[in-house]
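Kindly review this protein for my students:
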Amino acid sequence: MDRVALRGLRARGHHGVFPQEREEGQTFVVDLSLGLDTRPAAADDDLAKTVHYGIVAEEVVAVVEGEPVDLIETLAERIAQVCLKHQGVREVEVCVHKPDAPITVPFDDVTITITRSRV
């Protein structure tokens, strides 16, 4: 399976369990790896036969900026489902970064990584 990757998609969301996270929001960063067969697109040099990563990026940002959820696990699942709606995408790995998580000790990042595929 081939991979199309998008790294470092940034969007402001209001996800989290604490009132301050919901009110003020914070930046979330998303990395994606989409599994698909790119041979038909390459053979015909045809965008319609692959995934349009610009559209995927816009849809992922809309999810992050959209309806708030408590958990980044839920956010990652919603992103995965949006990606799998694209014809040809058989599998997706989603990593959601929450670099400004409300943690009381020094840290670099908090992430959740999930892999989902078509059933």
Q: What stands out?
A: The first strand starts at residue 2 and ends at 13. The beta strands are 2-13, 26-36, 91-97, 111-117. DSSP finds four helices and four strands in the chain. The chain has a mean pLDDT of 97.
